[in-house]
Write a structure and sequence with these properties.
Layout: H1 2-8, H2 14-39, H3 44-90, H4 94-112, H5 123-128
Length: about 130
């Protein structure tokens, strides 16, 4: 999987490619660490330190994913509220504007998801009937 991520670079955004390569390296490091702890007979202190190191490594990986995902979701929510505010001031029929802005936000959230940013990914369009 790591070779595929390095060679194909399946995501349009470079940051998504970098984060996924980093996550694959974290998974490999965790696997090798657990394998080494089972093969080599360490004392209790060393085993405890290795365990805390693995926990820290996994937490850093999760935080990096959240650092990429949350700003995109906040940006989509801000666009939604700005559009909704604009629709209220220009439209007399509030129900129609709410429907259009809700559709726009759902489209923005789908487009900001990493699965949508895959190059040549048509699976989301096929599921939603747009393909």
């Amino acid at each position: 999987m790591l070779v595929y991520l390095l060679l194909a670079k399946p995501y349009e955004d470079m940051i998504n490619n970098v984060v996924n390569v980093y996550n694959e390296l974290v998974i490999m490091a965790c696997f090798l660490s657990v394998l080494m702890m089972n093969v080599v007979n360490f004392n209790e202190l060393t085993t405890s330190l290795w365990g805390w190191g693995l926990i820290a490594l996994i937490l850093v990986s999760l935080l990096s994913i959240w650092a990429i995902t949350v700003p995109g979701m906040v940006s989509a929510a801000c666009k939604f509220f700005k559009l909704q505010e604009k629709d209220k001031s220009t439209d007399t029929s509030h129900k129609e504007s709410t429907k259009s802005s809700t559709k726009l936000v759902s489209d923005l959230l789908v487009k900001s998801s990493p699965a949508h940013k895959l190059k040549g990914n048509n699976s989301l369009q096929q599921v939603s009937g747009k393909g």
